[in-house]
Design a protein that fits this description.
By secondary structure, the protein is mostly beta strands. The protein folds into two domains: about 120 residues, no CATH class; about 120 residues, no CATH class. It is built from no helices and 25 strands.
Length: about 260
């Protein structure tokens, strides 16, 4: 049977193949480690690569090598300096992903900082996500704040509440209901709905976009420079400098379209 690795107080140990790792004090694992379970209640640093069935962090941890895990749960603070590959990650505290990572199922109730790209099958965000990289997802549900400088791309993107900020949004179906001022440089979607939440919404909140392209577009409380689509509805209090449509253009009485043309 593989040995157990437990650190009380301060300690520095080698890695290897162990049954489980428990850190209650201030510990450093100096080399690669393969284990069933890692739990950090104090402060830990893993210098090598880590492979585990589950990782749970209640204190503070830094992973300086690559991490491959079935389940990762962060209740404290975790910094991943290299690539992370995981089937399931849940963040209730604070997490930094420094390199491009692949996580099948991601749920965020805390704060995530992305320094490079992140790829997920499903991503639920109820907290705050910030960073510089691109986010690629199958399905995204965000009820918190999502502010990244890169691109968000997926099959179904749903934003309900919070602040949305990204360079580009691309998806088959995109639904945006914002509560505070949000912005994107460009949005591309087969079906796109943008509206402002009725409750807990700043009265001057608008969605600011340079360019929107798609098939079925329904835009409320949106300010855009150029909108191109098949069927375009410019809804409540929206302002668009130029609309190019193929089949139909519908305009609310409160909307302002400066120029439009059928293409």
């Amino acid at each position: 049977m593989a040995r157990k690795l437990t650190i009380y107080g301060e300690g520095s140990v080698s890695g290897g193949e162990v049954s489980k790792v428990r850190v209650f004090g201030d510990g450093m694992i100096q080399s690669d480690i393969v284990t069933h379970s890692i739990k950090v209640f104090g402060t830990a640093t893993f210098e090598g690569n880590v492979e585990a069935d589950e990782i749970k962090v209640y204190g503070e941890v830094t992973f300086n090598g690559k991490v491959k895990a079935g389940l990762i749960k962060i209740y404290g603070t975790a910094v991943f300096k290299q690539e992370v590959i995981s089937k399931n990650m849940a963040v209730h505290g604070m997490t930094q992903l420094s390199k491009s990572s692949v996580i099948e199922m991601m749920k965020n109730m805390g704060q995530i900082t992305m320094m490079e790209s992140l790829q997920c099958q499903k991503f639920k965000n109820y907290g705050t996500v910030t960073g510089n990289g691109n986010l690629t997802v199958g399905d995204l549900l965000s009820r918190g704040n999502l502010e990244i400088e890169g691109e968000i791309e997926g099959e179904a993107l749903v934003f309900k509440g919070g602040k949305l900020q990204a360079n580009t949004l691309n998806g088959e179906k995109i639904f945006i209901k914002f509560t505070t001022g949000s912005q994107c440089q460009s949005i591309g979607a087969a079906q796109l709905v943008i509206k402002r939440a009725r409750f807990k919404c700043h009265p001057q909140a608008f969605m600011m976009v340079d360019e929107i392209e798609g098939d079925q577009l329904d835009l409320s409380y949106t300010q855009a420079k150029v909108v191109r689509g098949d069927v375009v509805r410019v809804g409540t209090y929206s302002k668009v400098e130029l609309v190019e449509y193929q089949t139909k253009l519908l305009k609310h009485s409160s909307a302002n379209v400066l120029n439009c043309r059928e293409s």
